[in-house]
Amino acid sequence: MRGIISFGGYVPYRRLNRAAIAAVMGRGGGRGTRSVASYDEDTTTMGVEAARLALRSAETEPRALWFATADPAYLEKTNATAIHAALRLDTSVGALDFGGAVRSGVGALRTALEAGGPTLVVTSDIRGGLPTGADEANGGDGAAAFLVGGDDDGPVVAELLGTASATEEFVDRWRQPGSPSTGQWEERFGETRYGPLAAQAWKEALGSAGVGAEDVDVAVLTGAHGRAVKRVSGQLGVARVADDLAAAVGNTGTAHAGLVLANVLEQAEPGQTIAVVVLADGVEVLILRTTEALAAYRPVLSVADQVANGAEVSYATFLQWREMIRVQPPNRPEPSRPSSSAAARAQDWKYGFVGSRGVESGTLHLPPARVSIRPEDELDEMAPAPMADVGAAVVTFTVDRLVYSVSPPVVFAVVDFDGGGRLPVELTDVDPDAVRVGQRVEMTFRRLYEAEGIINYFWKARPARSGSTTD
Q1: Which whole-number Å values give the CA distances from 272 to 8, 216, 258, 293, in the listed order?
Q2: 329 part of a folded domain
Q3: Are residues 287 and 344 in the same domain?
Q4: For residue 471, pLDDT beyond 50
Q5: pLDDT score of 187
Q6: How many domains would you assign to the chain?
Q7: Residue 459: CATH number of its domain
Q8: Which backbone phi and psi does 110 adopt, to 5 degrees?
C-alpha cells in the first residue's frame, strides 16, 4: 500500500476583508476574506511551516523533498534547499524545485504517490494581482505538505487507488516573470477546453481505481478558472464536493489542492473515498481511500483552526506588503547584504535553530557555543539542542519605531524557553499593543530582510497557536 503518511496545511495569520478594497478604491473586492502572507513571509517560509506540521505527525524522515510553487523566492537557486535546512534533513536527502505553474503542486504530489521511498511534497503560493482586479480579491496565500510513502515507511492514512492525467496545450492563464498581474483568455474558451479534458481524466481515474462516481464520498475540486470548476463540479456525479475555502482563504494556486485536501483529511473517517481533481493547464485526478490509521492520526494544528483564528490587515498595509505602494521607512540605514559564508558556517543555527547543550552540565547555549559557561564542560563538549519546536514565554519586550523595517514598528522580546534557555528575538504576527509579559510564543521561520537580491532568513517568535508547540 502506498499513499499519504502525514500531512499539514498552513494558512497565514493575516486576513484581508474583500470589502475593504472597494471602500478604498471605489470598485473591486467582494464578500468574505482572503489569507495574506505577512511582509516577512514568502512561499519558502510558508512551505517550511506546512512541512513542520506534517513531519511532527510522522515517524519517518523523508528520503527526498520536492517543493512546488508558482511564485518562487529565487530563480536560478533551488528554493527547496532552504526548506531542507530549516527542517534539518540529512544531506543525503535530495531537494528539488517543481516550479513555475499552478499544476506543479498536484503534479509533484502525484509523482511522489506513484514513486518509491518516503518523499516530502511541499506546495506553497502567494497569489495576487493589480489593485481592484479579480485575482487580488479572489487569490489567497498558503501552503500544504504531504509525507508520502508505503507501509514500510509508516502508517498510511490515505492509500492511493488510482490516478489519471489529461494534458493539452492551450493558453488560458499566463504570467511572465516579474509581472504583478495574470493574463486570462476569455472564460468561455477555457471552459470549452477543460470540460472534455476533465471528463476524460475523471473516467480514466475511476477506472484505474476500480470505483464508480457513486463510491466517492467527497471530491476536492480546484482550479484557477472559476467557470470551468463550476461546470466540472456538476458533472462529477459525486455525493459531495468539498468546501474550497474560497470565502475565508481564497484560491492559493499551487498549494490549493493540497490545502483543501488537508482540510478534508482532518475531518474524514476511515474507509472514505476522496477524489482530488485539479484543473490547471490540463487536468490531474487522484483517487484516495482513507485507512484505519486515520482514526489515530492527530494533526498538530488543523487547517480549520488556522482559518478560524486570523487577524485583519488593512488594505493599505496589504498594498505595502505587496510592494504596490511605497511608504516612508524609518530614518535608519538599510541593512547590508547578508554574508553567504557566515550563513554556511552557522547553518544549523540560522536555518535549523539548533543551539548547544553542555554534555556534563546540561546548560543550554543560544546561539550555540564551543566553550560552555559552565566549568565542568570541556572545550567542544557540546550536544546539539534543536529548539524550533520548543515553546517559550515573553520575559520582557520593547516596541521599536526607529529601527529599519519593511513594516514598522518592530517588536523585540526576550523569551525564556521551556526547560531553560533565554534569547532576544523579534516577534511577528502580533499586535504591538497586545503583547504582554508571560505571553506564550513559538518559533517560526521568516524573512529578516532582503539586500542586493539575497534574502536573509532566520527564526522569529509568534503568539503560540493551540497545540503547535511542546509544553
Answers
A1: 19, 8, 17, 12
A2: no
A3: no
A4: no
A5: 78
A6: 2
A7: 2.40.50
A8: -65, -45
